[in-house]
Request: fold
Amino acid sequence: MQEFYIKPVAWATHEAALKLVREKVFIEEQKVPVSLEWDDWDKQAWHLLAVDRQLTVVGCARVLQHGSIGRMAVIQEKRKLGVGNALLTAAIELCQQHHLKYATLSAQTHAVPFYEKAGFVVVSDVYLDANIPHMDMQLKF
Reply:
């Protein structure tokens, strides 16, 4: 039995839960400055929340209407359980349901192989975002 499930949520109703995951992963663990983590895109984006059987929030992702997948995070203790893969699959499906031609993302370089397994290809050189090396990736449908 799967230890978690993914559900689409709105920022207006699930802001606290989404912020909890992103604060733990990006701000505390990865030291992303608070000023870079929060932006105006959250209010209009589609969001996905990963919740375990105890109803604890364990991961999240957001998808912008033009197909940019981002802010994908899994709580450290819940990594290696398939949560990230399930979030990515749900994000891709969301893009396809909205008839987008492709999905894009900015991958931390250590995560490039993870995204490549889902069919994404690198479309940029390495660059720094929040002082973390990233590469742009794209998946055509």
